[in-house]
Amino acid sequence: MPENKDFDLEEPLTSTSRPLTDSVLTIRVIKSFPYRNVKNFVLPNYDLKNKSAKDLFEDVLKFIQTNGSFRPFRSVQYDTLKIYTHAHGSKTVNLVVNFEHDDDWVLDINNVEKKLHEYGIENETEISLFKLEDYKEFKANPTEKWL
């Protein structure tokens, strides 16, 4: 009888080749939508099975506060995590944020019970961090500005 696993080594895709307790996430920190001011970092060995969106939010904020290269990004009051894209999924046309799936890809950062894998997050998922008010303004008028 086959063992019940949350990963697959027989026909591996990057999204299923690692267990949920040892996943890699890319976090896209968005400082400014119109100026496309985005900086990415990778969270290796992240536990999607036991960590909640609140845990992820706190871990990401801690990284921003302690990593010197994110000093310019500390002035924003971030309040939202949203899936940007899933591994092997179609990419959005917008280089800054995914305008689709506002109803089901925004993570509830106040819910400590719902675990990250329950949002459909797998290994190699990209997640955006931003200020919701800024997102709504940009979505209403998605005009990009250049310096």
Supply database-style keywords:
single chain; alpha+beta; UPF0538; Altered inheritance rate of mitochondria protein 29; 5-stranded mixed sheet; Ubiquitin-like (UB roll); 147 residues; 5 strands
Verbal overview:
The protein is built from two helices and five strands, in the order E-E-H-E-E-E-H. By secondary structure, it is α+β, with helices and mostly antiparallel strands. The radius of gyration is 16 Å and the shape is globular. The model has no long low-confidence stretch (mean pLDDT 86). InterPro entries: UPF0538. It comes from Vanderwaltozyma polyspora (strain ATCC 22028 / DSM 70294 / BCRC 21397 / CBS 2163 / NBRC 10782 / NRRL Y-8283 / UCD 57-17). This is Altered inheritance rate of mitochondria protein 29. Belongs to the UPF0538 family.
How does the SSE layout of this entry go?
Elements: E1 23-32, E2 37-46, H1 53-66, E3 80-85, E4 106-107, E5 126-130, H2 132-140
User: Biggest sheet: strands side by side, in what order?
Assistant: 2-1-5-3-4
**Total domain count:** 1
Task: Using the alpha-carbon principal axes, give the shape.
Answer: globular
DSSP summary, beta strand count: 5
Count the DSSP helices: 2
Succession of helices and strands: EEHEEEH
Helix content: 10-25%
- CATH architecture identity: Roll
Straight-line distance between termini: 61 Å
Q: Unreliable segments (pLDDT under 50, ≥5 consecutive)?
A: none
State mean pLDDT (0 to 100 scale).
86
Family: Belongs to the UPF0538 family.
Pfam families: DUF2340
Protein name: Altered inheritance rate of mitochondria protein 29
